[in-house]
Amino acid sequence: MALKRNKLEKDLGLSLESKQTGRVVRQDGEFNVRYHGDRELNHYQNLVSVSWLKFFVFCTSMLVGINLMFATIFYTIGVEHFSGIHTLVPAEQYYYFLYFSFQTFSTVGYGGIAPVGHLANIFATLDSLVGILFVAITTALFFARFSRPQASFRISKKVLLSPYKNNSKALMFRVVNNRRHAMSEVSIRIASRFEKKTPQGTYQSVFAELKLERSEIMFFPYNWTIVHEIDEDSPFYHFSAQDWQRPFELLGIMKGFDDVYGQVVQQRISFTEENFEYGKKFTKMYSRAADGVMDVYMEDLDTFEDAQIPN
To answer: Coiled-coil segments, which residues (predicted)?
Structure first.
């Protein structure tokens, strides 16, 4: 069965080499790629982009590690170079040095313990300077993480083959703005990826951009159903019911202007045959209330029902 390939305006930048079980974009929007060898490591970008859990674990680990290091230094200098520590038990002395390090690091300085002599004062000063830098850096990272423009389009988990106007059929999936503030000038581009077996026994990706019923909207207050009609220009035109079980992928990118960030944000999209439902249609997820306000039911984003697909 021949696949009709639509001309892509831009090279997708993806490899043609493929494998039957592979996908280009994961469901979380990240590319399905693993790098080997040396690459530039930008700690700032990593700390801004990692999950909040990993960020808090990193900051806590650094905080504890730095203070354990200074507590060990103070313990090595000796208890005789610090006033206010009267115990002779080594473990308790270390605990006091750890408390002193945290107090100095945070610039609280209760005054119960004080350094005596040049060496102890030098390292106590370094401890407070490192604490000031740590607070400044973590504060900057917190601000960068909170202010980083990010899209939050909630996308249906399934893509459906549904009946369409004029006794036709179409691929459909839904998307809604997951945030409470408004977005405008939203656009989307979707491409299909099929895997074709070569005479050498390997698999090669074949890409085709899908023509959409509507590829951009001016405002985005409600849900939006993305529709690709299966017409003669569609790479799915000659698909039978059995062909829809073949490996394929729909991948794309969605962009919109975020009113709060004042910037364009984007989010990648991916569906495979595992997310596909044949002969289904979405149920309505919005209604007009008696007071004239449009009610959008977010929990109904993935609700669908059986539908008769025309031959």
So the answer is: none
Contact indicator for 132, 248 with CB cutoff of 8 Å: no
Tokens 């801004």 correspond to 48
Binned at pLDDT 50, 70 and 90, residue 2 comes out as: very low
Alpha-carbon distance 169 to 177, whole Å?
26
Read off the pLDDT of each residue in 269-279 and give the average, rounded to a whole number: 89
Predicted TM-score (pTM) of this structure: 0.72
Please state whether beta strands 276-278 and 159-164 pair in parallel, antiparallel, or not at all (unpaired). Answer: parallel
Residue 31, domain member (yes or no): no
Whole-number Å distance between alpha carbons of 197 and 206: 10
Quick one: residue 119, left, alpha or beta (phi over 0 = left, psi -120 to 50 = alpha)?
alpha
Note whether 139 and 155 are same-domain residues: no
Residue 17 lies in a domain: no
Last residue of a domain, one of 119, 147, 175: 147
What is the domain-level CATH number for residue 222? 2.60.40.1400
Q: Is residue 22 part of a domain?
A: no
Considering the domain boundaries, does residue 37 fall inside one? no
* 159-164 vs 183-197, strand pairing mode: unpaired
Continuous H helices in the chain: 43-49, 52-77, 90-105, 118-147
- If one counts every other C-beta atom within 10 angstroms of the C-beta of residue 42, the result is 10
Q: Which residues contact 246 (CB under 8 A, 6 or more apart)?
A: 194, 273
| Residue-wise pLDDT tens digits, 202-248 | 777 788 899 999 999 999 989 999 999 999 889 888 888 788 888 88
